Amino acid sequence: QVQLVESGGGLVQAGGSLRLSCAASGRTFSWYDIGWFRQAPGKEREFVAAITTNGGSTYYADSMKGRFTISRDNAKNTVYLQMNSLKPEDTAVYYCAVRQYSGSFSSTTSYGYWGQGTQVTVSS
Questions:
Q1: 63/76 Cα distance (integer angstroms)
Q2: DSSP assignment, residue 44?
Q3: How far is 35 from 107, CA to CA, in rounded Å?
Q4: Rounded to the nearest 5°, which phi and psi values hold at 31?
Q5: pLDDT tens figures, 62-113
Q6: DSSP readout, 47-108?
Q7: What does the alpha-carbon distance between residue 39 and residue 90 come to, in Å, rounded to a whole number?
Q8: CA-to-CA distance for 34 and 11, rounded, in angstroms?
């Protein structure tokens, strides 16, 4: 069992930055790849970024490349998502998740444990 808690969301103006945190407890955090997803009202949950167990590899959705950076600190059991140059279309609830199953890093079906999410709102 892994418990995930996201934090760091809020209201920011377009062009601004936020850093989201995903704190984990339970089983050994460093064993798992971690992903970030987001879901806007009326839309499906979409992939944002993912990072492998030791941080050696990272993956991003095309629309986030160059603006978002995922990182992790296994000593703190925490994964971060640094979001820069935010746009109104980035407004969503952001979730972190543990990749439990084989398959694409960008597919929600590869992930088994999810946090409750943190709201990010970008004003124009």
A1: 29
A2: -
A3: 10
A4: -75, -15
A5: 999 999 999 999 999 999 999 999 999 999 999 999 999 989 999 999 999 9
A6: EEEEE-TTS--EEE-GGGTTTEEEEEEGGGTEEEEEE-S--GGG-EEEEEEEE-SSS-TT-G
A7: 9
A8: 25
